[in-house]
Specification:
- It is elongated, with a radius of gyration of 24 Å.
- It is mainly alpha-helical.
- A hairpin with a 6-residue loop joins β1 (about 45-50) and β2 (about 55-60).
- It has 3 helices and 2 strands; from the N terminus they run ααββα.
Length: about 80
């Protein structure tokens, strides 16, 4: 794993260590969490059986689609 090194003042080092200690993590993990973009949260899958077809489907809440979005998607459909 590559190692990055950078210089900070003694006051900045104390502040980083104190912040990492307050977050109950290592200095490396603290800097990594604040410097890199957060990974997208994994969506939970809720499998249910459709009452009519009997097929399983993902019933997890997700983005709602409006009628305007459906109409726009089907506008070019022959």
């Amino acid at each position: 794993m590559p190692t990055l090194t950078f210089k900070v003042t003694p006051a900045e080092a104390r502040a980083l260590r104190a912040s990492a200690h307050a977050a109950k993590t290592t200095v490396s993990a603290y800097i990594r969490a604040h410097a890199l973009p957060a990974a997208p949260a994994k969506r939970r899958i809720v499998l249910k059986k459709h009452p009519i077809s009997g097929l399983t489907y993902n019933a997890a809440p997700g983005p709602m689609v409006t009628q305007a979005q459906i109409d726009a998607a089907l506008a070019d459909y022959p």
